[in-house]
Write a structure and sequence with these properties.
The complex is a heterodimer of chains A (about 150) and B (about 150).
Chain A: E1 4-8, H1 13-29, E2 32-39, E3 46-47, E4 52-53, H2 59-84, E5 88-94, H3 98-108, E6 113-117, H4 131-139, E7 144-147
Helix pairs in contact in A: 1-2, 3-4
Chain B: E1 4-9, H1 13-29, E2 32-39, E3 46-47, E4 53-54, H2 60-85, E5 89-95, H3 99-109, E6 114-118, H4 132-140, E7 145-148
Parallel strand pairs in B: 1-2, 1-6, 2-5, 6-7
Antiparallel strand pairs in B: 3-4
Classes of the chains: A alpha/beta (about 150), B alpha/beta (about 150).
Chain lengths: ~150, ~150
């Protein structure tokens, strides 16, 4: 069946449900998992006419902070995979649009399925499906298991 | 993991992809599958004032017979796929005007713990990113849904 399952996470509690389901499925199928966390790129200060944007952090600080977030989020994948004795790898990718990075990681790592939660960091917010999950479903050529 | 996977079908080629994935997953997990086909209810002739007329092409009896034949054909495909994979299988047909509601009800009634379905069904690809019934099932299901393109 599936041999390599991608489990995207944004570090949220809701995403952890998807991670757990992905690892459990991998354990049942004898598959491996790859966890992926998508880091939004640093936005430099912008001074335009009437528009001013000043990031709260310098680029170096930003990189450090987001990498710490990525490590923390991906450690959930590591812990779950170790507990279930499932071979695993983790990666972080930098991209504006998480769903694009999720799909390109699936392609690059040759995953044959994606398991993800119905919602992530954005929360339940009255929406029937989270925005990234919807886009992954729309763009994925490999099967996607959506977990609520 | 999963013990009883619901595989809804509308008899279309696209739905067959969902069936295949559901049966393969069940085989790998030692689970069984529950096939379900939703029969659209018979719509009786409507005679309204002036503009509102609807005359079905078939009588109620004929219509029911035709629908049941379609259901049997679609569910036979599920049974055949399950048999080939050595997976235990039950099938049922239900009548409802809203397939997604009937699918979720069948999942509850059959105590299924996952649903596997194609991204699209009889409605075809029609430029949409996901089929309408699949979208509704995803939105309302409390159990995991495997979507297969």
């Amino acid at each position: 069946m599936y041999r390599h399952i991608l489990v995207p996470t944004d570090g949220s509690k809701l995403a952890a449900k998807g991670v757990r389901a992905g690892v459990r499925l991998a354990a049942a199928l004898g598959a491996r998992v790859t966890g992926v966390f998508v880091i939004p790129p640093y936005v430099p200060p912008m001074y335009g006419e009437g528009i001013i944007y000043v990031p709260g952090r310098a680029p170096g600080e930003y990189r450090k902070a987001t990498q710490a977030q990525a490590r923390k989020a991906l450690s959930v994948v590591e812990i779950e995979a170790q507990a279930a004795r499932v071979p695993y790898a983790t990666r972080s990718a930098t991209a504006d649009q998480p769903w694009r990075a999720i799909l390109s990681t699936a392609r690059a790592r040759r995953c044959d399925a994606i398991v993800m939660a119905s919602h992530g960091r954005g929360g339940l917010g009255g929406l029937i499906l989270g925005s990234e999950t919807t886009r992954v479903l729309a763009g994925s050529k490999i099967p996607v298991l959506v977990v609520r | 993991m999963f013990r009883n996977i619901l595989v809804p079908t509308d008899g279309s080629k696209l739905a067959a992809k969902g069936i295949r994935a559901g049966v393969r997953l069940a085989a790998a997990l030692g689970a069984k599958v529950t096939g379900v086909y939703v029969i659209f209810p018979y719509v009786p002739p409507i005679y309204g004032e002036a503009a509102l007329y609807y005359v079905p092409g078939l009588s109620e009896k004929e219509g029911k017979k035709a629908y049941e034949k379609q259901a049997k054909k679609a569910l036979d495909a599920v049974r055949a796929e399950a048999k080939r994979a050595g997976v235990r299988c039950v099938t049922r047909s239900v009548t409802s005007g809203q397939p997604w509601q009937a699918i979720l009800r069948a999942a509850r009634a059959g105590r299924c713990d996952a649903i596997a379905m194609g991204s699209h069904g009889r409605g075809g690809l029609g430029g949409l990113i996901l089929g309408s019934e699949t979208t509704h099932v995803l939105a309302h299901s409390k159990i995991p849904v495997l979507v297969v393109r």
